[in-house]
């Protein structure tokens, strides 16, 4: 990280329910990529581990409590984010406390990975969705 201080790390969760559906949220108006559907998550802040950043984002965005040990690394994507390189880390999560609520987005949707092609998502998410379609 020190050798590449411009790299942006983003963490995201494939929150998966008992029938294999995964939660997506719509990015709100006024934000970059508004209206696109994304995996809940956000940027890793200075001094945070990826897992504690993701647990923080899931609390802020959905109001749920997740233990860092329940975040299972799944896959990652590398993409350009404006003028910066971005690494997007996707974790599987099947255990949490609370009911996910749309605290930071206009809408939430549970859907199977094979149905995600029907929704507009950020370009960086394409390899993540392809991975989920293959291995979910
Ligand atoms: N959470 C999330 N972000 C994604 C996905 N795909 C993708 O390209 N991104 C991008 C969008 C944003 O440029 C960046 C995440 O930043 P964000 O703005 O949501 O982060 P944040 O919650 O920390 O918000 P902020 O404090 O910077 O406003 O990653 C995804 O599936 N989930």
UniProtKB/TrEMBL annotation:
It catalyses: 8-oxo-dGTP + H2O = 8-oxo-dGMP + diphosphate + H(+); 8-oxo-GTP + H2O = 8-oxo-GMP + diphosphate + H(+). It holds the Pfam family NUDIX. GO terms for molecular function: 8-oxo-7,8-dihydrodeoxyguanosine triphosphate pyrophosphatase activity; 8-oxo-7,8-dihydroguanosine triphosphate pyrophosphatase activity; 8-oxo-dGDP phosphatase activity; 8-oxo-GDP phosphatase activity; metal ion binding. Keywords: DNA damage, DNA repair, DNA replication, Hydrolase, Magnesium, Metal-binding, Mutator protein. Residues 6-133 form the Nudix hydrolase domain. PROSITE patterns: NUDIX, NUDIX_BOX. The keyword DNA-binding does not apply. InterPro entries: MutT-like, Nudix_hydrolase, NUDIX_hydrolase-like_dom_sf, NUDIX_hydrolase_CS, NUDIX_hydrolase_dom. GO terms for biological process: DNA repair; DNA replication. Its cofactor is Mg(2+). Its EC number is 3.6.1.55. Gene3D superfamilies: Nucleoside Triphosphate Pyrophosphohydrolase. Belongs to the Nudix hydrolase family. This is 8-oxo-dGTP diphosphatase. It comes from Sphingorhabdus profundilacus.
């Amino acid at each position: 990280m020190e050798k590449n201080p411009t790299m942006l790390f983003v963490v995201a969760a494939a929150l998966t329910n008992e029938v294999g559906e995964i939660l997506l949220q719509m990015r709100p108006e006024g934000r970059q990529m508004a209206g696109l559907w994304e995996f809940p998550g956000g940027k890793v802040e200075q001094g945070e581990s990826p897992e504690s950043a993701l647990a923080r984002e899931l609390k802020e965005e959905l109001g749920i409590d997740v233990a860092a040990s329940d975040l299972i690394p799944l896959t990652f994507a590398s993409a350009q984010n404006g003028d910066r390189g971005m690494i997007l880390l996707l974790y599987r999560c099947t255990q949490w406390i609370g009911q996910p609520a749309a605290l930071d987005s206009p809408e939430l949707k549970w859907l199977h990975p094979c149905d995600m092609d029907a929704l507009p998502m950020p370009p960086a998410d394409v390899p993540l969705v392809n991975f989920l379609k293959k291995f979910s």
